[in-house]
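Subject line: Sequence and fold of a protein, written as structure tokens
Body of memo: The sequence and its backbone structure tokens, given next.
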Amino acid sequence: MSKYKRIKTKITSADLLRQALQEVVTREGLGAFEEGDLIAHGYRSSQATPVRFVIRKRHLLAYGDLGFAQALDDTFTIVVDDLDRRGQHVAREVKRSYAVLEATRKAQAQGYTVSPVKDEMGRTLELRLRRY
């Protein structure tokens, strides 16, 4: 029997997470994500976890929903079904996209121009920085 697990992350910016989610949802063809909702734990369960962002299982084509809950220290925790490989794959892609967006933002703040190198699926493989 599956259950939801929580994965602590170093994600702190809701705006960058929203952008990363939009990028992954578009690239993976997932339809949409929602803001500010609950994830029910299991079929007919009375337990639920409040999350800031959620991709519903009907969009993931997976066992369960994928959620991002904001902790008291402003970091985000991933809430995903422990048997759901599709949800875990999408969670990894969101973390990867978030890291690229955060690195790009920090590099641009320091005066660099950023040129991403992407693979055939549109994922960023590396960032090339240049300062004039």
Remarks:
- Strands lie at 4-8, 34-40, 48-55, 66-70, 76-81, 113-118, 124-130.
- The helical segments are 14-28, 57-60, 85-109.
- Residues 4-130 form one domain.
- The longest strand covers residues 48-55.
